[in-house]
Amino acid sequence: MMQAKKIAKNVYWVGAEDFNVRSFHGYKTGRGATYNAYLLTGEKTVLIDSVKKTFTDEMLQRISSVTDVKNIDIIISNHAEFDHSGAIKTVADISGAQVYATAAGVKTLKNLYGDMDFHAVAAGETLSVGEFEFAFLPTPMVHWPDNMVTFEKKNKILFSNDAFGQHLSSSNIFDAEISLEISLAEAKKYYANIVMPFAPQVKKALDAAKSLSPAIIAPSHGVIWTKHIKDIFALYDDMTSGKKLDKAVIVYDTMWGNTEIIAKQIGAEFERKGKQVIYANLQTVDRSDLMADIAEAKFLCVGSPTLNATIMPSVAAFLNYAAGLKPPALSYIAFGSYGWGGGAIKQICEILDKAGYTKLGEVGCIYRPENLNLDFMDGIE
């Protein structure tokens, strides 16, 4: 039987580990994922969130290692997305538990799973359950309209939903048990690929979280923060403020190597100016692995040869993905090679202009990239 893991007195992790998942919303999850759910026991029993439906049995086993599933009185649903809510209906049917969520959460859960004993909560509302007192803080668009976080006052635990999460599967559930470098890198990647489009809303949630001075942050994915809360707060301060590093990310695909030669010449100019340069050939690098670097870079360079009068499919997919995530305040260079006719550079510029980025210049050549004009880069500081 799967066992629950104790977080604090009468507070347990009862989630699931997904070691095998390698794609989440088109985001590469090389270290797997967890679906975190939490059980609080006492005069009454409370379940906070649940797991992806296919892991329902694993969660039920963990709950059963502490108490009978029938004993659950209340389910708090911070987010109705399937990886958070997939087992809620099963638990509610077994236990008859009341389900607390935001009004938008109730609406979504009802649409997904049908009727349950729903209770909609509002901002600032509290709920006393035996020795526990919960405060509900709606955080709409972090990253769905229904989102909220829940603060348990006795143990000062912030059940933070998708905020401060990481896709990182491990039998060690606490941040002190895992390399801080790895957990922060995965938290940065998670932010860049999941919640970055909603930075203003995330900043409000961050400020609210800091004001609570939590002793424990228990997100819906990844490690539970206990030792390194200041570090994850600092990371989110940087990410939500749009802090920029003197970095250029050069993303491209190439057919015969000519576009790659242009990429290296552009990179050499950035290096000459003392900039950090990251090269990413989309034939070998997954686009989701780039987003954390792009989020904090000042410069983005995108290159593609012209294929059938348009952009290479890999570059088109990257641009579509990146534009949806809205990395802030970028200056860009478009580049590429072409044969008898061009078109790729113009289309790259159109996409990045529409996204609101500042064009520094463009570099194109027919077949062989010789005598490239990079004079426009002289003004880059």
Uncertain segments are none
Main sheet overview: 7 strands, mixed
Q: What is the CATH class name of the largest domain?
A: Alpha Beta
Number of separate domains: 2
Put simply, the count of helices is 11
CATH superfamily of the largest domain: Ribonuclease Z/Hydroxyacylglutathione hydrolase-like
CATH fold assignment of the largest domain: Metallo-beta-lactamase, Chain A
Structural class, by secondary structure, is: alpha/beta
Written description of the protein model:
- The chain is α/β, with parallel strands linked by helices and 381 residues long.
- The protein has 2 domains: 5-241, 4-Layer Sandwich (Metallo-beta-lactamase, Chain A); 245-379, Flavodoxin domain (Rossmann fold).
- It contains 11 helices and 21 strands.
- It has helices at residues 56-64, 82-85, 88-95, 103-113, 180-195, 199-212, 229-241, 258-272, 291-296, 313-325, 344-354, and strands at 5-8, 11-13, 16-18, 23-24, 27-28, 33-35, 38-40, 45-48, 72-76, 98-102, 117-121, 126-129, 132-138, 148-152, 157-161, 216-219, 245-252, 276-281, 297-303, 331-338, 358-366.
- The chain has a 7-stranded mixed beta sheet with strand order 1-2-7-8-9-10-11.
- α6 (199-212) packs antiparallel against α7.
Short overview:
With 381 residues, the chain is α/β, with parallel strands linked by helices.
